[in-house]
Request: fold
Amino acid sequence: MKERAVITAAITGGIYTPSMSEYLPITPKQIADEAVRAHEAGAAVCHVHARNPETGMPVPDVNLIKEIITDIKSRCNIVIGITTGGGLGMTAEQRVAPVTLFEPELASFNAGSINFGLFPLVSRYTEWKFEWEKAYLGMTEDIIFPNTFKTMREFCAFFVENGTKPEFEIFDSGMVNNVAYLIEKGYVKSPVYMQFVMGVLGGITPSSENLLFLVSYAKKLIGDFEFSVCAAGRAQFPMCTQSLLIGGNARVGLEDNLYLGKRQFAKSNAEQVTKIVRIARELGIEPASSEEARKILGTKGIDKVNF
Reply:
């Protein structure tokens, strides 16, 4: 186990919709406020998406992203990671724009294509706050989240040019091989940072055996790397805890899970951060500060961003 682990808060994401929880942050101010509170609770990193402030729909609006990240930066020194996954149906150009415009310390980098199935959520709800929600979720039965080798090569060039550390999102084991290929070709330098994403329909399921396999497989193919774990729904805390036990870091937040416990909604990202920090400390692990996280992950520093 580590003496210190990086806790990431994924603030709002592009998966859950406003009908599912009244606590899901939607407006730029709500998202920024949540990031600051998560930092105060012990998160060293925040992962940022933008939503339409009127409807809560995930959008690639760089003006909204700028409003969010500028607000966060003005109030704390948390490491700000920006999504390049965006929302379903966005173009590659829309997805990478935050890296080229804002030169963040950290940004997500999806390491392969995946069937990203959210459609089973539709049957759980009979009423919707907004018309877009049901259609948005339902269309994922017939959609592929594309991340081709060409796209990944191009993304690597943008990340290198802007000094942004890629957070490789690993949804399945083949994506570890993809990262190894990018390293072999010289498109990205070691040590890399990988986020093992578990529980998305179309990707690897959350289990102890699967996480141990992913880490072992990555060690064989890549060698030196830093990793974190996030898991969808009720698997969030068990899988994050296992990550801490085997030397990894942990990501919590309302992007991945709307609950704090069984049938208990999380009222904020900070509540989830507080819980994983408590678990970590019970194991003898302290949450890393943002400056410590910068050293662990190898980011360039908050003074070198363009916002």
